[in-house]
Write the structure tokens for this entry.
Amino acid sequence: MLMQLDKKPTQVTEFSIELIEKRPASPISRPPLLFIHGAYTAAWCWQPHFLDYFADAGYDCFAVSLRDHGGSSAPHGAGGWSIADYASDVNLAMDEVVAKTGRNPILVGHSMGGFLALMVSRNRAVSGLALLATVPPEGLIGSALHLFWRHPQLLWELNVIHHGGHPPRLAKLRELLFSDAVPECELQHYANLFAQESDRALLDMTLPQFDLRTPLGHPPAFVLASRHDMLMPAHLSQSAAHFLGVKAELVDGVGHLMMLDGRWQLAAEPLLHWLEELP
């Protein structure tokens, strides 16, 4: 059981999961990396910067698109995907990575992807956990309350994205998800790529979380947060770090979508440093 609020994934017919690969020219003897995206995006969010950066450092890199995101198809026979459905997609991607490399991956999860990485690691051995601007173990309630009380206009903008539209003002999109280092043409490009998210998955993460077990085998963990994150404020990532028994690393100058930010190196470099320090 992954979570008490949803005991098993929805039963569906066959479908395909997109797994983007980036292999290093000079591989090193380290576990592969499996990147897990957050809500509204897909595996494409890791392609502009992170996949090349970590492959150049010698890591086998893989990025999964959850069902009905990016190049992954939507299963027939059901709808309203749960967070347990998404976790089963991560498990499928892990199976593929293990088959290709012979090693359990380090899970690198962003936002909802961090929540999924932690969720999967409770029932399956992983080589490590790296959570970036993550939804904490207690779920989305803290983020929702933060936006409601501190930034209600941004909460409305996020709701527009959620229902398949685009924020009417790119300035608000920047304020919600990026720093001032992202050119307006890139903002528009990313806005066009955002996809509608499952109401049920978001509700699953907003309701009280009953499964708060620590990861199986206590793998090494890394938590990174931005002090300027309007969507997932740093204290929520610090909560995740405390849960994992580590100290969160805080950076300045990047927004919530740190892997796409104009200053993406500020997030990538601490992650690489942590990877290189692993025994």
